[in-house]
Amino acid sequence: MTARADTGGRAAGWTLKARAALAIGSLWLVFLLLIVRLAHLQIADADLYLGHAARQQILSRELSAWRGRLYDRKGRLLAASVQRYSVYADPHGIVDPAATARALASVLDVPAGSLEQRLHRDCYFVWVRRQIPDALAVRVRGLGLRGVHMQRESKRLYPQGKLAAHVIGFTDIDGRGLAGVEKSMDALLRGRPGAESVLCDGSRRIFRSARDQTERTPLNGLDVHLTLDAYVQEIAEEELAKVVERHEPECAAAVVLDARDCSVLAMASWPGFDPQAPAQTPLSYQRNVAVNDAYEFGSVMKPFAISMALDGGVVEPETQFDCHQGVWRIGRRTLHDAHAYGMLTVSDILCHSSNIGAAQISLLLGCDELYRGVRDFGFGRPGGIALPGETGGIVRPLAAWNQYSVVSVAFGQELAVTPLSVAQAFAAFSNRGFLLQPRIVSAIKRPDTRETVYDADEPIVGSRVISPATAREVMEMMRRVVEEGTGKRARLDEYTMAGKTGTAQLLRDDGRGYSDSRYLSSFVGIAPVEESRVVVLVCLKGPTKNGYYGGVAAAPAVREIVARTLRYLGVPPGPPDRTTPGESA
Length: 585
Description:
Elements: H1 2-44, H2 46-57, E1 58-63, E2 70-71, E3 77-89, H3 97-108, H4 112-119, E4 126-132, H5 134-143, E5 148-157, H6 165-168, E6 170-171, E7 177-179, H7 180-184, H8 186-190, E8 194-200, E9 206-207, E10 213-216, E11 223-226, H9 230-247, E12 251-258, E13 264-270, H10 289-292, H11 302-311, E14 320-322, E15 327-330, E16 333-336, E17 343-345, H12 346-352, H13 355-365, H14 367-376, E18 394-395, H15 405-410, E19 415-416, H16 419-427, E20 434-436, E21 441-445, E22 452-455, E23 461-464, H17 468-484, E24 498-507, E25 514-527, E26 534-541, H18 550-553, H19 555-568
Parallel strand pairs: 2-11
Antiparallel strand pairs: 1-8, 2-3, 3-4, 3-5, 6-7, 8-9, 8-10, 11-21, 12-13, 12-26, 14-17, 15-16, 18-19, 20-23, 21-22, 24-25, 25-26
Helix pairs in contact: 3-4, 3-5, 9-19, 11-13, 11-17, 12-17
């Protein structure tokens, strides 16, 4: 019994040893397999898994560049950027999308349903709401939601509100210029963004470490100084609003140029919009009427044909023409004047805005010379101002002119031009016959060093279109327009002014002929006559109340803009009015 028990004990011992050896061998085999697998992962598949780790642990993100600021000519801030928090989420890090969406919706005023759908996406990044006020950012942070994060972005602000909105323009939420100077100068204003790599944890929360690195340093945008004067702009917008309220046009524009260098002191369009919230108004309200729209300006164009005839020696200021008591038939056309005139001098024709007299002067000038002069004054091509959408207007090729074109062009038909191009051309009369290029940018500077990159100290002078003597003669004729002719409502007691009225029939909607009820009412003034400082244009498309003649609707607005602007600029009053008022406009 004892021997058998001893033999059984030895057998059981060997069995335990075998089992232990097998277990240990299995463990060694497992360890060996793990070592092989780890070696494979660490060596053969190292690059693959390092890439996976980098994508999960290292976040590459853009470093925003500061967008350049916009200033007026006196250094008043027109547009700038500020830092705002934007909220985003990592759907992979969110445990309960529905509860997270409800919590965020209660604070950020976003639809919970659509936000929940976005939080279910198979991605690492979705926007929740961008550029929120700091107070909301504090509330979001206080929620302590897993997978919800914030980052700083720049938001564009316009400290002057709606002032000069059509000129300044606006940007989208990503800081890209979409209109106005914001668009035309976008490449300079935007700068160049940088990039950096930062470490983040499994919930995609960013934390700083020594491994963070800047891959590209951001380059901030340049500051752009405009020729606009915010105070003059406010004057123009106030007076334009008054004339709009009185006459209720479809749209309207006002342009104020510095007569000495053709820089834009003010450019206003109506209807207007808020650059901080442009989507709240119709897209048509964003049109800059002064540069985007072209019209037949009617009698405002008469000084140009007359100046060409004077400059070519075809007529003298006192040359007389028979105006046929206001009705004159030429071929198949019959021309009419607003009043019945007999014999008028060239100066009288401009003073009283006779269509018949202007047509006869243009006929003497001839088709070729009139076409050349129209082109020389800059009509039919963009002026080159740094504003988007500037149209060159419409001047048909000379080959397309017929026997009646000379007559039509004499009083502003058969060619469409922009308000800015008309003001630019009028400035030639105050610049000894030189056509200057209009401009809106006065300087471009670096934001950090204030180093000047571009400076528009000197005017951009084009060709001489008429002689200095002719320019003086036409200025004196246009002085008569204000003192005793159709523009008397623009006359000022303290400053002398030269100008011209325009009342042009608008084309019918179907393009077949001219409307009998819709007009473009306009007036252009230059003041003071002796040493001109400003050129001011106001035009109203389709005024519907209280008169539509240019001398009635537009001239009073020009008078007020000129008076207030010259006082602001410190221009001393000129000599007293030296004439006796003539007939009414």
